[in-house]
Design brief:
Layout (H helix, E strand, L loop, with lengths): L1 E8 L5 E3 L2 H9 L3 E6 L5 E4 L1 H14 L2 H12 L3 E4 L5 E3 L2 H4 L9 E8 L1 E5 L1 H24 L2
Antiparallel strand pairs: 1-7, 2-6, 3-4, 3-5, 4-8, 7-8
Length: 146
C-alpha cells in the first residue's frame, strides 16, 4: 500500500528520489512506474502490477466506446519510468510539464492505497484547503471506519 505525504526535490533532469517505504513496494511490483495525467494538475503513478490491474478492470467494465476513449485519452498519454540504482524516478518530460513547477523544483508525493499522486506543493495545499470543508462534513463516517 502506498501511504504518506513526502516533499521531494527534482534534479535538473526531472528525477526525484523515491522515499524508502514507496520504493520498497515499487521494487516488489516491477521496479517501475506508469505515469498518467490526473485531475487538478496532478500526475498519478502506478506500479506495473497495479497498472495491469487497472487495465484488466477497464477491459471487463468498459463498453467498446468507453474502452476506445480510455485508450486514446489515458493510455496514449501515459509515460513510464524505471527506478534507477540510486532510487530515483524520472518523470517523463511531457507529463512533467503538466505540474506547474516553481524555481525550487519541489514536488509533493502522496501515497493513495494502490497509486501515488504527484503535485506542485502550492497546488497541493490549495487542493487540501478547498477540500477541508468536505472532509469535516464526512469526518464522522470516516472515523467510524477506523
Amino acid at each position: 500500500m502506498f501511504a504518506g505525504e513526502y516533499l521531494c526535490k527534482l534534479d535538473e533532469k526531472g528525477r526525484f528520489i523515491v522515499p524508502a517505504p514507496m520504493r520498497e513496494r515499487l521494487e516488489t511490483e516491477g521496479n517501475g512506474v506508469v505515469f498518467l495525467k490526473g485531475p487538478e494538475q496532478a500526475l498519478w503513478a502506478y506500479s506495473p502490477v497495479e497498472w495491469e490491474k487497472v487495465l484488466e478492470r477497464t477491459r471487463t467494465k468498459l463498453d467498446e466506446d468507453q474502452s476506445r476513449l480510455f485508450m486514446h485519452f489515458i493510455v496514449a498519454e501515459a509515460g513510464t519510468s524505471d527506478v534507477d540504482k540510486a532510487g530515483r524516478i524520472l518523470i517523463p518530460g511531457k507529463l512533467r510539464k503538466l505540474i506547474p513547477m516553481e524555481d525550487d523544483q519541489e514536488i509533493i508525493l502522496v501515497g493513495l492505497y494502490n497509486h501515488m499522486e504527484i503535485w506542485n506543493p502550492a497546488e497541493w495545499r490549495r487542493y487540501v484547503g478547498k477540500s477541508e470543508e468536505k472532509y469535516e462534513q464526512q469526518l464522522s463516517k470516516i472515523l467510524n471506519l477506523l
